[in-house]
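In response to the reviewer comment on reproducibility (Comment 2.3), we provide here a single inverse folding case reported in full, input and output, so that an independent group could reproduce the run without further information from us. The structure tokens appear first.
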């Protein structure tokens, strides 16, 4: 049987078990040192340590865990930034097929799931959660047509020896990233999907940009530098246009400073309409400005 756990900031970050009931009082279901509620210690480690967005792997005692972190929650800090929450699905070997489907669904529908998950929390009269909605949601998520052509993803998820991870802090694994593998306690061959390509796939449903790579997580292994070519997103284009505007504004200010300095050194002409600045005169102004500075 698959068990559900979440991490939520409520008087500090705390871990709660979700039993699948309507309007669950989560504070009565907290996971503590004395009350584990069948939650493996290694799974709690993944709640507290960052570096990956999603991780699907075997844990101790034959358990399998599907972890999704950095989910924007329903509450915000003083700056208005959503406070992150996280969820874990923990099962046994007999739950592998269902967990495989859940992992595929999250890969294909990351943004939409995160929004729906945040809406399941309620702070009226304490911290509550619509656990029945979460359980029903995954029991009914059997349509993976969006990943129909992504055989490599299906094979990676179904391979019991592989571990799936989506990078959250950077898009590409680089030389020296074996430290991340050590921190995440990963060993052997791991499949990973660059986070930026996953976001683009979620937005455009373009399977051509959804890259799956295999890496060796041995601490002595050196990951070769590589770069996945990702199609430009609208946000990237907007940022580029913004930078061009900033550069143009800086150039305009510099020209104004140069002309102002020139005016201080020479009297203004009687008629500004007769002023024409040629390239040669601008060069002379620049030479004088460099001499004065």
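Designed residues, in position order:
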């Amino acid at each position: 049987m698959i068990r559900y756990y979440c991490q939520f900031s409520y008087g500090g970050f705390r871990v709660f078990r979700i039993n699948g009931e309507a309007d669950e009082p989560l504070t009565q279901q907290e996971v503590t040192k004395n009350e584990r509620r069948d939650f493996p210690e290694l799974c709690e480690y993944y709640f507290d340590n960052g570096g990956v967005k999603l991780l699907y792997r075997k844990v101790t005692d034959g358990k399998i865990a599907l972890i999704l972190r950095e989910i924007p929650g329903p509450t915000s800090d003083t700056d208005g930034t959503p406070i992150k929450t996280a969820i874990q699905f923990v099962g046994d070997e007999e739950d592998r097929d269902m967990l495989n489907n859940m992992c595929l669904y999250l890969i294909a529908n990351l943004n939409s799931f995160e929004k729906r998950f945040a809406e399941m929390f309620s702070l009226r009269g304490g911290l509550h959660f619509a656990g029945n909605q979460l359980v029903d949601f995954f029991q009914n998520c059997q349509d993976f047509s969006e990943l129909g052509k992504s055989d490599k993803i299906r094979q990676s998820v179904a391979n019991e020896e592989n571990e799936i991870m989506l990078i959250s802090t950077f898009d590409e694994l680089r030389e020296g990233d074996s430290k991340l593998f050590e921190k995440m306690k990963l060993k052997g061959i791991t499949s990973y999907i660059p986070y930026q390509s996953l976001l683009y796939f979620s937005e455009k449903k373009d399977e051509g940009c959804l890259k799956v790579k295999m890496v060796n997580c041995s601490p002595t292994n050196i990951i070769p530098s590589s770069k996945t070519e990702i199609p430009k997103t609208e946000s990237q284009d907007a940022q580029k246009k913004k930078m061009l505007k900033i550069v143009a504004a800086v150039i305009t200010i510099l020209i104004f400073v140069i002309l102002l300095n020139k005016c201080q050194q020479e009297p203004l002409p009687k008629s500004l309409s007769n002023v024409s600045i040629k390239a040669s005169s601008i060069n002379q102004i620049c030479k004088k400005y460099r001499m004065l500075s």
